[in-house]
Amino acid sequence: MADRVQGLDAAAFRSALARFPAGVTIVTTRSAGGTLHGFTASSFAALSLDPPLVLVCLDQGATCFPAFIAAERFVVNIATPAHAKLAMRFATKGEDKFAHGGFESDEGGHPILPDAAAVIRCELEQAVPGGDHVILIGRVHDARIGSGEPVMWYRGDFLHLGQSVT
């Protein structure tokens, strides 16, 4: 197996992964010092119903990586088509991600998107290394559903539910 992995064409691998539509999330937290942090992730999934667990993957090279590893809590905001520009900002290094507003704070000061398709608030259960990423496992302590439809990431662009693909 290792020989096949070493011979893998990275561009072909990325292109193959781009053929799998994935939801778009904006994951946020607040550091102990009060600084807000966040990133865009399409690697998000339910892990367990009992106990309620979700997972999200974070690049170890991300500026916010240390903040999320140290965080006790984080929030998964499921993006809608209206959040496309915001999701791109949260996917970019060096941006002041919270500069243009749009977020409210929960009782713990963690940023939430009030118009998200869903908001899932978690306690960090475990951080598991996974190649160049870390898998953040969150124990869900609260989930609320919004009225908007989620947006998907497909072949390097946003895809709205019901939109045809060419």
Automatic annotation (TrEMBL):
Pfam families: Flavin_Reduct. SMART domains: Flavin_Reduct (SM00903). Transmembrane segments: none annotated. It comes from the Bacteria. Residues 17-160 form the Flavin reductase like domain. InterPro entries: Flavin_Rdtase-like_dom, NADH-dep_flavin_reductase, Split_barrel_FMN-bd. Keywords: Oxidoreductase. This is Flavin reductase family protein. It comes from Streptomyces rugosispiralis.
